[in-house]
């Protein structure tokens, strides 16, 4: 399970994110919306979608499509393939900064009110999204729990420096891009540490 509206099951549609309870890929809905389909069109085209159960999910897809179209129309889309999953503990200013720079950032707070750790770990790995978090322990858990971990960016800034993390993370991503994949990156005031996957004997503590 990923959210109350979207799910990932390795046995369904090759593990692609689908509308919960269906075999309809989220990417299909995104494409249809970007091509001009309305919610009424989608409900008519796919009978398993119902206004009561799925209008909220279509709304999420529409917002994602609108953001993507805005970036494309204004020449803001980046050619980078690196993608991100922002934990609810991540300051949303970081999400906005990366999106403004044209990066694909999925924010947990926008798609679900709560997710178990295991669900987010699975989603990050399945979609190959680098996790953005401000929680050291959860970030390290994500990094070491799976061999295919796409990586973690741990943000450690004091509460009186809210503008700095967003600017710093955006610059970090712009300068390093795909090189951050598979790494445990710690971002602190005046200091950034990028660590590759540790050896099994060094998995107990994050490199802080």
TrEMBL record:
Protein name (record): DUF5615 domain-containing protein
Domain of life, source organism: Bacteria
Transmembrane segment boundaries: none
Gene3D superfamilies: Winged helix-like DNA-binding domain superfamily/Winged helix DNA-binding domain
Domain DUF5615 span(s) in chain numbering: 83-189
Organism listed in the record: Candidatus Hakubella thermalkaliphila
